[in-house]
């Protein structure tokens, strides 16, 4: 029996990122997608170090206080993290070398500065002089008293400059790679079918003599380095300082955060490495990670598609059948609920709903929550247009959305200049709920409609994230949405409006209590030999109190099925469980982001979609909502989609106690790839106006 009640969260997260790496290793995945998964893996790991590793290092400073919360010494957790990260790094490099060979077979060559032919050399030099040179500011680091603060989102060339005859002493320099201003990839000219790509850092490597020759040097070596910093923003309690000022101060401090990882090319000159480690103030206890030649692999998410013969294979989203031939999305939603499933259904329906509201003379106001917006947001275009048409528009903008703080501060300025009323969330709680409330008045009769969603109001991520969005004018649901917005506008009312919600389950006031009660109902039914089951689809499961409830339920004979993309801290295998828990994680082309909860409830099933994962932060420290699906055909549709995912035997991995990430065994059954089957299931509904369930077995 395990001594710990739950699996260590950070170790479970590394197991999740290992599943991302499995996708990159799968030769059945298209080559461009394999490269993209390597980029996602790299980006995930960066954020893990910036947030979780940084937090563990702070806990070490707290000593025994931290051990009380973690049950384990944070130092031992860091050691396990280091071991697993180095193991995954070895696998990463193996996969990348395999992909390089596959690229070569497709006549796509990633070349270095040492492998250029004469024509390519000329092209690279011209490109450097015309496009790159103006972005280059070399730092002669030995001449600088205070070592420059290295941006943790950037990579640098650490350069050693010397002269063959040793008439000049060697020097060290740093060159920042301007990957934000320029593409990381340069496609080189070619006279045949072969494609050649050079990385921006190799363009700069090739042109080092042009940068440093006037110093008199004739020998140059350069290796890539990268620093990852503590990215947590500490909000001080100075009441005289506004939240915006605190966030802005935090963003400035983030750039100077304590280094938590230093990654370097293992072929770097040892004297230069020691110099950098010393000047950066790193000790050997820090996470010094020797790596290969290429760092910041996250940029490879945008590896140039033009070089591939096989172009984008993704199927395009389609309009929901209820809206396909409708003259107005609004009229349909006022008549009946519509459930959108992204990225299969088009997000244009949401944009159209907002556009129609913006120009409808009977619409009085629009209220919407925004957590992460697209860089060129059509949502923002629609609601600013509503202001121009005389509507009252309120946007609840969460400026503490991690790594989107700067973007959201910029959106605040844009929205306020357009005349939008901007609310910056609530001091005590992050606003993570995804809601829209549109108020319409016809002949002195007021109607509310809008949506409740599991995902962000972001048309860009809606192309790649699996989410559910309920377009509705249901009076009970919209009454609660209205109560939540009233609270967000008047947070000093001390949660009374949230507590008044009767249909939505809202955190932090009722979510823990109500979901615990629903689990208890299943436990009671199982103990009374009645049918009892729970299906839970979320991104992360780490809340220990809810995990304890699920353990109790499994021991009581409740049938439990879990679909968890990321962190799963629950031990899913136990001899005391009366029924074996089915627990899987699906990693595929689209990011599984939706949250769904289904409780048998004595035959009167309760089906919810939610913005909240089952983590302490979501349940107790955020404004979240779980929305019941009340319409029967819609409930069946959600159940069907869950059954499709539970039958996945291509992209599903088993979530066992050992975090082994074993794929579900097909056992001679026909292959079910749930994202493909989901598309087919929803697409079939375009050609029929009646509901036809795929699965008749009880859930």
Describe this structure as you would to a colleague.
This protein is of the alpha/beta class and 699 residues long. It starts with 8 loop residues before the first helix and ends in a 15-residue tail after the last helix. Helices cover 37% and strands 20% of the residues. It folds into 4 domains: 1-106, Polyphosphate kinase N-terminal domain (Methane Monooxygenase Hydroxylase, Chain G, domain 1); 114-300, polyphosphate kinase like (2-Layer Sandwich); 329-503, Endonuclease, Chain A; 506-687, Endonuclease Chain A (Endonuclease, Chain A). The strands form 4 sheets. Strands 13, 17, 18, 19, 20, 22, 23, 24 and 25 form a 9-stranded mixed β-sheet that branches. Helix 1 runs antiparallel to helix 2 (31-62), helix 2 (31-62) runs antiparallel to helix 4 (74-105) and helix 11 runs parallel beside helix 12 (378-388).
